[in-house]
Design goal:
The protein is 1% helix and 43% strand. It has one helix spanning 12-15, and strands spanning 34-35, 43-45, 52-56, 62-66, 71-74, 96-103, 106-113, 121-128, 137-145, 157-161, 164-169, 176-181, 194-198, 207-215, 218-225, 237-243, 259-260, 265-276, 279-288, 294-304, 310-312. The termini are far apart.
């Protein structure tokens, strides 16, 4: 794989390699939770006035439910059985990194199906009127990538901006990409260009798990840097850049992570953002160094500085 030039920059400082661990004083601990804490790549929504639902990698898109955002219980999977087409991309029928959103009276669930280390991948889409486990109807492939493509169609996240519907995605290869979606079908718009938001100049180009948030006059691109899925050896940390244009360019503020591992909380990443009680909440996973590196749910409130940058508390 040849060395790649940054296409649309998250800024040189943002791409500088920093230590994968941080002092506890630099980053807050996740807010205390109880119950079923094991999770990976969480996406969270509050589909009714009673409870939050968190979907994640594992199972057939496993789910957790909570009434107070503090105690979480296991629930059913999103689907009763894997759709047949999943096996074209993964022999185990195991989807990754879901994303939940709401529009046009429906909840929309996007997810990736792939195998480790290949970009023969697909992003699927499903809808539900309630957003709850066991109620989803799958609609097949929203976007795909093949080994001849310079991107990898995994880790989707959907945002509405500038009156249009967009999906950001990507992992390694050439980094973070974006494609416009057809609002009627939820799938890639016919002939839509694939925009390049960010990559890294250093092999193995380890940036993935993007999430886009519209706040004020800016779009904010959250991304996970370095390695996940290695328990206590994971080096994930979360960075963020912003732009006044959804397609970029994106720049960061200080070149430091929004959230990095510290103490027992190793490899913070796989992030998303949801609204709860009028506030933005950052959801992510970390690997618990005091529990054999088990992946667990991290939640922290996002606050916004006067000049429009998110900080975690």
């Amino acid at each position: 794989m040849k060395r790649l030039r940054l296409a649309t920059v998250l800024a040189a400082a943002l791409l500088a390699l920093l230590p994968a661990t941080a002092r506890a004083a630099d980053h807050p601990d996740p807010q205390p939770i109880t119950g079923r804490q094991i999770i990976h790549d969480p996406t969270v929504s509050r589909p009714n006035s009673v409870q939050n639902v968190a979907y994640s990698t594992g199972g057939i898109i496993g789910a957790r439910l909570s009434r107070d955002r503090k105690h979480w219980d296991d629930s059913r999977n999103a689907f009763a059985a894997p759709p047949d087409w999943w096996y074209e991309y993964d022999g185990t029928g195991d989807p990754w990194a879901p994303d939940i959103s709401h529009r046009a009276g429906l909840y929309w669930l996007y997810y990736a199906v792939s195998s480790w280390g290949t970009n023969h991948s697909a992003i699927g889409v499903a809808t539900s009127r309630s957003g709850l486990p066991g109620t989803w109807k799958d609609h097949g492939k929203a976007f795909t990538s093949e080994t001849t493509d310079p991107w990898n169609a995994i880790d989707p996240a959907v945002v509405r901006a500038d009156g249009r519907l967009w999906m950001v995605f990507g992992s390694y290869w050439t980094g973070i990409r974006m494609v416009e979606l057809d609002p009627a079908t939820g799938k890639s718009a016919p002939g839509a260009a694939v925009h390049h938001l960010a990559t890294r100049p250093d092999a193995p180009y380890a940036v993935e798990g993007p999430y886009l948030l519209r706040h004020g006059d800016h779009c904010y691109l959250f991304a996970s840097y370095d390695a996940c899925c290695a328990g206590v050896n994971s080096t994930y940390r979360i960075r963020v850049g912003r732009s006044t244009n959804v397609t970029g360019p994106y720049a960061d503020s200080a070149g430091t992570p929004l959230l990095a591992g510290h103490g027992r909380y190793v490899g913070t990443g796989g992030e998303s953002v949801f609204r709860d009680e009028g506030r933005d909440v950052l959801a992510y996973h970390y690997y618990d160094a005091e529990d054999s590196g088990t992946p667990k749910l991290g939640l922290n409130t996002l606050h916004w500085t006067t000049d429009g940058w998110p900080i975690v508390r």
